[in-house]
Design goal:
9-stranded antiparallel β-sheet; 767 residues; 5 domains; Immunoglobulin-like; Rossmann fold; 8-stranded antiparallel β-sheet
Length: 767
């Protein structure tokens, strides 16, 4: 008889004579506030929990094998300067259950409980992502994964703080695994007994007790994560639904009728492992008291969250209990039950032997009810799993763009965007379906080939793909379009020599001599003053530079408001970029923008002088959706009243600042790029997106150039040396421990410095 199970309690377990297992110290300031966690641990794992305030890890019980941090309020204590050395010296696993997780600037790793002003010092991380975490973070190496603007993870794949998010780090701080989805321990880099898990339970608010995750997915991720520390627990574990498709769905999609067209999901099997022996000393692979397993499954009906008893499978015990196989496979599930593209939850209730060899009835409190797992069935509608990425062609104008698709995709078409990408929402139909002609080939495959794109950028385009199940000309079922991706020929895209001006309707304009994105010379104050041409960098070709008179003076006609505005629609939303200019700073206030191209205070890129209160520092930054990343020079890098060559580059995840041809700053964790918010509308020279709160640039600019690729350290050096001559040091490659005089070469002069003190000694010997 089928029996309805309402999902109110997700875990029920009753055990007698449980052995003493892992010694857990649960740290907090209120046992009552942590009781839900204590109960969960003791009911589902072979653990002994000792509660106390262990904010100083030196006070942990001597036999502690795992440290669990439970209470929300006060969790910051584990990251403070007083005990960080003690904390990081711990070699036992650490499980943090606080609502927010962060790492301090100085490299210590810890956590805190919420967005209070005092915690801003904890933002900005240089944690190293290992290969095991690369699939989640999209990178290997240092990464800034904490966003202090929205108090959420900024790494790809983690999203905002919430149920089911887990971060595992090694004792040295390396991120090993970033996330488990329900029922899938997708991280393979966790080392039993050494790694540390930081789990985001739902935010209950400052001062409230830590509670369990409030969704089945969160509970399952929580259970799976703790299983890595405490073992598989007392219930069924290791769920696997097969066959699994590349898009994460399960089952085979089969056409069973042509007229009408009918598709079925077939061959779905439920796999799991039976619970291990409660008696850990005896240690049978399967609890010998289990007679079988009740399988519960949703119907797939909309708005019906209930699980129904679906079937029963007997547990087979070997004559030698040490040889009993814990692996259970059930299926295939009825294809008439399974709907396409539908998420089903399922659950195993392990039936305990009633003493006569028969299983206890479903729902008996002595049975072992496992966690709720889920799977999503395959669909006849094809899916594009991976979209093409923005790319630069090579010097010959060649490039490739590729998609990855799901189970039933078998035909493909590529499209060129005209205006906005066509979508059902905007009802536009302007995009052009590509054919194998001109620079395009592979237009009916997963990979689009670009061959011989024009070097002037006239062939640059944004393209996307649609996959089909069946011939699109014969009624094939289409996927949703992929994200559109640009391809660009690498080149100089904007050049403002600031040598001439012209007027249109009484507006003075200086030209972009490459792409025609000319700049209007404007002022926001009450006077008529605007930037003017003045004597430029003497060694450059031409006579003039653009002068901005913004000294923060009291004259109403000189009120820090002169700037230039590049034409709206500037096509500079590139993935890689170089900005270079000759800069003559006449001194000014904080955040003086050399250039600021964006849409608002949450989306922009800028090159500025004096960021914050750091005098004469140069900074390049990109901000997308409120997240900002930057690279800076040292202070005093840009002296006043001197012509200085300044360049900033961005490629991949690396941003660089150059001063007078030499590398002056590097950040290898810049995952944001201008194409993520472009094309932009507020494209300003000498003015900030933040308005008067940031100073207008005060001084002169000459020969401003923008490239859609990152020029190399060698190229930047040649840009400078071609004007000034002499030499510069390649600090990207510099590794000369015997360059004692700092002239970027090892020579006799360095030997002379050694020889000058040869055999000198400052030893003290006994009398």
């Amino acid at each position: 008889m089928k029996r309805l199970i309402i999902l109110i309690v997700l875990f029920i377990a009753v055990f007698v004579g449980k052995s003493q297992g892992v010694n857990v110290a649960l740290s907090g300031t209120s046992q009552e506030g942590n009781q839900a966690i204590i109960d969960f641990l003791e009911e589902n794992f072979d653990v002994t929990v000792t509660f106390g305030d262990y904010s100083n890890p030196a006070n942990l019980p001597a036999d502690t094998e795992v440290l669990v941090i439970g209470r929300v309020l006060g969790s910051w204590a584990y990251a403070n300067a007083d005990n960080s050395a003690i904390f990081n010296a711990l070699t036992i696993p650490v499980v943090c259950l606080t609502s927010y997780v962060a790492r301090p600037d100085d490299g210590r790793w810890g956590w805190h409980s919420g967005p209070t002003a005092g915690f801003y010092s904890l933002s900005g991380d240089e944690t190293v992502v290992t290969e095991a975490g690369a699939g989640i973070f999209g990178t290997v190496g240092p990464v800034d994964w904490w966003n202090d603007a929205s108090w959420s993870f900024s790494a790809a794949g983690t999203g905002s703080v919430g149920d089911g998010q887990i971060l595992a780090t090694s004792p040295t701080g390396d991120i090993v695994v970033a996330y488990w989805k329900a029922g899938d321990q997708s991280g393979t880099g966790v080392v039993f007994g050494s790694d540390r898990l930081l789990f985001n339970v739902p935010d209950q608010g400052s001062g409230n007790p830590v509670d369990l995750p409030n969704t089945p997915e969160g509970i399952q991720a929580f259970f799976d994560a703790l299983s890595l520390i405490f073992g598989p627990g007392y219930g069924p574990y290791d769920p696997l639904v097969t066959p699994e498709n590349p898009d994460g769905s399960v089952g085979r999609i089969v056409k069973v009728s042509e007229d009408p067209v009918v598709w079925e999901v077939q061959d779905v099997f439920l796999n799991f492992k039976a619970p291990p022996d409660i008696d850990k000393e005896r240690g049978y692979p399967v609890n010998p008291d289990i007679a079988g397993h009740y399988i519960y499954l949703q119907t797939g009906a909309p708005e019906d969250p209930n699980l129904y008893l679906y079937d029963y499978v007997m547990q087979v015990h070997a004559e030698d209990p040490y040889q009993t196989n814990p692996e259970i496979s059930y299926g295939p599930l009825s294809s008439t039950l399974l709907k396409q593209a539908t998420t089903y939850q399922w659950q195993i209730e392990c039936a305990v032997n009633d003493g006569t060899g028969n299983p206890l009835e479903p729902g008996d409190p002595n049975n072992i009810l496992g966690p709720v797992w889920s799977f999503k069935t395959a669909s006849a509608i094809p899916a594009i799993i991976t979209s093409p990425v923005h790319t630069l062609t090579d010097a010959s104008g060649n490039a490739t763009l590729t998609i990855e698709t799901g189970l039933v995709a078998n035909h493909y078409r590529w499209f060129k965007v005209v205006g906005q990408q066509d979508t059902a929402e905007n009802e536009e139909i302007d995009d052009i379906m590509l054919t194998d002609s001109g620079i395009f080939s592979g237009t009916t495959t997963k990979t689009l080939f670009i061959t011989g794109a024009a070097s002037d950028g006239s062939d640059d385009a944004r393209v996307y793909a649609i996959a089909y199940n069946g011939d699109p000309e014969g009624g094939g079922v289409p996927s949703a379009p992929s994200a559109a991706a640009w391809f660009w020929y690498p080149r100089l895209v904007n050049h403002y020599p600031f040598e001439t001006t012209y007027e249109v309707e009484e507006v003075t304009i200086t030209p972009d001599i490459v792409s025609g994105y000319d700049a209007m010379l404007l002022s926001n104050d009450t006077g008529q003053d605007i930037p003017v041409l003045a004597a430029g960098m003497p060694e450059l070709e031409g006579d003039f530079a653009l002068k901005f008179d913004n000294p923060r003076g009291t004259d109403p006609n000189v009120a820090d408001a002169q700037y230039a505005q590049v034409s709206e629609g500037w096509a500079g939303g590139y993935k890689d970029i170089t900005i270079s200019a000759w800069v003559y700073s006449s001194g000014g206030s904080n955040w003086n923008r050399i250039l600021d191209f964006g849409n608002d205070t949450n989306n922009y890129m800028f090159l500025c002088v004096n960021p914050g209160s750091v005098n004469r520092q140069v900074r390049f930054a990109v901000k997308v959706a409120g997240n900002e990343q930057s690279v800076s020079s040292a202070a005093e890098a840009l002296p006043d009243n001197t012509w200085v060559h300044v360049a900033a580059t961005l490629t991949g995840t690396t941003g660089r600042i150059y001063i007078n041809g030499e590398l002056a700053g590097t950040n290898t964790s810049m995952t944001l790029d201008p194409v993520s918010y472009g094309p932009s509308v507020n494209n300003w020279i000498a003015r900030s997106q933040w308005g008067a709160g940031d100073g207008y640039f005060n001084g002169m600019l000459d020969d401003l150039k923008i490239y859609n690729y990152a020029r190399t350290t060698e190229q930047i050096a040649q840009d400078y040396l071609g004007i000034q001559g002499g030499w510069v040091c390649n600090y990207e490659l510099y590794d000369l421990p015997y360059d004692f005089n700092g002239d970027c070469t090892v020579s006799l002069a360095d030997f002379a410095e050694i020889a000058a003190t040869w055999l000198d000694s400052y030893r003290i010997y006994p009398d």
